[in-house]
Write a structure and sequence with these properties.
The protein is mainly alpha-helical and about 190 residues long. It has 2 domains: about 50 residues, Arc Repressor Mutant, subunit A (Orthogonal Bundle); about 130 residues, Tetracycline Repressor, domain 2. Helix 1 packs across helix 2, helix 4 packs parallel to helix 7 and helix 6 packs across helix 8. The longest helix has 24 residues. The chain is elongated.
Length: about 190
């Protein structure tokens, strides 16, 4: 299998894993579910991944990369600037609304994938907290670093919880409509002193 063929097969498997997890959740998703959706042989799958967990983690990484790309969309906005928080949040939530399967992989299912899924997700959450803390610190929050980090952690956690609830309820399409209110919540916790 050439590098282009390998990459194309990997992309198909990742898309199939997202679709299966979106429909069934990670615990109920099998390698067979991925194979059927990707129209791929078991042999090809195992040339790409050691197991189902590795395929899920690759799917998580892909969804994470796409979602985080919305934080730096190239429109000249500095995603780390709190004044752009509503539009950046609206873009990210809009992206997740258009890709509910990836949203479920990214927001709801990592813990079900075990310690490696939890570690990946915690690293993502930590990066979001750090990004918000840098932004809030530059915007003159007036808080001590530990206070600011705690408020940012609470903000990211609150937004995550609201997103997860909507995604689990099958209401990912509602996410963009929450952007303004969630941005206000983040501002009140992390940006305003």
């Amino acid at each position: 299998m050439g590098e282009n063929g390998r990459q194309a097969n990997r992309e198909r498997a990742v898309a199939a894993m997202a679709e299966a997890v979106g429909e069934r959740g990670y615990p109920e998703t099998t390698v067979r579910d991925v194979l059927e959706r990707a129209r791929m042989s078991r042999r090809t799958f195992y040339q790409l991944f050691d197991n189902r967990e590795e395929c899920f983690l690759a799917t998580y990484d892909h969804a994470r990369s796409e979602a985080l790309a919305w934080l730096d969309d190239g429109d000249g906005r500095d995603a780390s600037c709190a004044s752009h928080l509503p539009s950046v949040l609206a873009d990210v939530l809009g992206y997740l609304a258009t890709k509910p399967d990836f949203a479920r992989v990214l927001v709801v299912e990592p813990a079900a994938a075990g310690p490696l899924g939890v570690a990946r997700h915690e690293r993502t959450m930590h990066e979001l907290v750090e990004l918000l803390a840098r932004s809030s610190g530059r915007d003159g929050s007036g808080l001590e670093p530990d206070q600011l980090r705690l408020r940012c952690e609470a903000s990211v956690g609150a937004v995550h919880r609201v997103m997860a609830a909507r995604i689990v309820e099958g209401r990912a399409s509602d996410l963009p409509g929450l952007a303004s209110e969630l941005a206000g919540l983040v501002r009140s916790l992390a940006v305003a002193a």
